[in-house]
Input
Amino acid sequence: MKTALITGVTGQDGAYLSQLLLDKGYKVHGLIRRSSHAEAHLRRLEWLGIQNDVTYEDGNILDVSAMSRIIREIKPDEVYNLAAQSFVKASWQQPLLTSQVTAIGVNNILEAVRLEAPEARFYQASSSEMYGLIQEPQQSEATPFYPRSPYAVAKLFGHWMTVNYRESFGMHTSSGILFNHESPLRGLEFVTRKVTDAAARIKLGLASELPMGNLDATRDWGHARDYVRAMWLMLQQESGDDYVVATGRTVSVRDLCRVAFEQVGLNYEDYVKLDAAFLRPAEVDVLLGDPAKAKAKLGWTPEVTFEQLIAEMVEADLERHSARRA
Ligand code: GDP
Output
């Protein structure tokens, strides 16, 4: 039986990855940050019905001594670092916290793995936001980076540390440059879930409008369940590497609104209002990934289309709000 440690286990990807690894017979340990509302944080694992199947470890990626102790104790075969301050907009308001968690946190875990379990395989959750002001129309592993937010700068540090630990210490480390990936478990601060939740509430008469930022931005959106499979595949290869994980199709925020509202039989133009509060100091206008390497080397292809993804999210939000009302 293999043992995995997942940081960020209470997040969207942590929940889906736990489910995947449990299904494969892994013993899954999840890092939990001590807080007064820890139970609320297990809601994504509960949604998947696996909250009692994960072993929780108290710790924090900011505390390298705690990370070393945990890794020494559980001797993981695989470590997945999904923990981060992951919301781009918040990174302008909390740039230093974002750097501590999203950049230095990666180095802390890499050090703990190097010292306590150097044979363990390591996955770093890198991000398409690192491409920022895009240098090529379609972004691959060879495309130069141009980060456009404190979040993206921090992720770039984590990415290069992961590459450096591989090249300097011969460790099996992989960086997954994942384009936006969503699901019914996505946080409400992200645009897909904000829109599917609003479409559901408006349909049920619980809201009357949807304040939005830049509708012209486009993203390459996939389903988180597909993307965690790519993470696992990276760690099953003979050596670590960097991979873009994307669908190869980009859709505007405007079309996201259109598709989500169509799902409940409404026209988004009747409800969406521009609200400058949701604009950003610097925008990433377009992201479009080239998943050719992941396809060729990992045999990975996404199974869920954008329309299926949004339909699943709207359905889940309709169910949640209907249940709350009943
Ligand atoms: P990101 O790509 O990691 O920043 O993911 P988000 O889901 O937070 O944002 C995706 C895109 O949607 C960005 O270009 C945002 O500027 C744009 N957007 C437009 N309106 C909104 C909004 O109300 N909320 C969020 N989160 N994003 C918005």
About this structure: The radius of gyration is 19 Å. The chain has two domains: 3-181+221-245, 188-219+250-287+304-325. The first strand starts at residue 3 and ends at 7.
